[in-house]
Design goal:
Length: 244
């Protein structure tokens, strides 16, 4: 389990759209017995533990407190009943109060009024907000200093020998990795030109998925239509209401 260690050394200093429609797709596949990597994944897919998802959602402003985030995630877990019987287990769904499958996270974020989109690592920028899911490193390089931010479950605990224990989800907001007690530049992901982190120096050894999170009230203008003609809210183009 990846748990922040406040006493550790610290340093100052492709993109397929995912929307509410994928719920139904996931459930249809589950009822058919599809055991594919997308959208549900396998029964032994690693799930980030230690309430890191709830903490990340608070960091992104989706919820005001970790308690509220945990309650909402657990509610979506309980509501996800249209799923194949052998998938209804903690190893897949996650453990109430602590860990949640990525479809549960997606449901929770959308139900809270935010847009949730799978994106590629290479498309991340220093303006938007993201959830990043991957295999955390037991230490990473910030400038010329090593940071070891996590408590170990046992003396030999490390992501190389026990990767399931090091699955982690973090928030990135405006170019900052939002850690529990401070933030660091996303540059310390140490990504190469293909978006892969350096497994020895990066914050993550491996990044599995990146989700862009934004409020549905964020407005995108449709190109070449004029500001008054169309607006985009979430994943839908709509004609705005005009005052008379």
């Amino acid at each position: 389990m990846v748990v922040y260690n406040p006493g550790a050394v610290t340093v100052e200093g492709g993109a397929m759209p995912r929307s509410a429609g994928s719920f139904e797709e996931a459930e249809r596949n589950a009822r058919k017995g599809v055991d594919a990597s997308h959208p549900l994944g396998s029964l032994d897919e690693p799930v980030a533990d230690g309430r890191c998802v709830a903490i990340a959602l608070v960091k992104l402003g989706v919820f005001n407190s970790v308690g509220a985030a945990v309650e909402a995630l657990d509610q979506q877990r309980d509501n996800w009943t249209r799923i194949r019987g052998d998938f209804r287990q903690d190893t897949f769904l996650g453990t109430r109060g602590s860990s949640w499958h990525r479809q549960i996270i997606q449901r929770t974020v959308i139900a809270a009024g935010f847009d949730f989109r799978l994106t590629s690592v290479c498309e991340m920028n220093k303006t938007d907000s993201y959830l990043v899911d991957g295999l955390a490193n037991d230490r990473y390089l910030v400038g010329n200093k090593w940071v070891q931010p996590y408590e170990l479950d046992y003396p030999e605990d490390n992501p190389r020998d026990d990767p399931h224990n090091w699955q982690h989800i973090i928030a990135i907001k405006k170019g900052k990795i939002m850690r529990t007690y401070n933030s660091i530049e996303m540059d310390w992901l140490h990504l190469d030109s293909e978006g892969k982190p350096d497994p020895e120096t990066g914050f993550f050894r491996k990044i599995d998925r990146v989700y862009r999170i934004c409020g549905i009230d964020r407005v995108y203008r449709m190109p070449e239509r004029g500001a008054a003609d169309y607006e985009r809210l979430g994943t839908r183009w709509i004609t705005p209401t005009r005052s008379r």
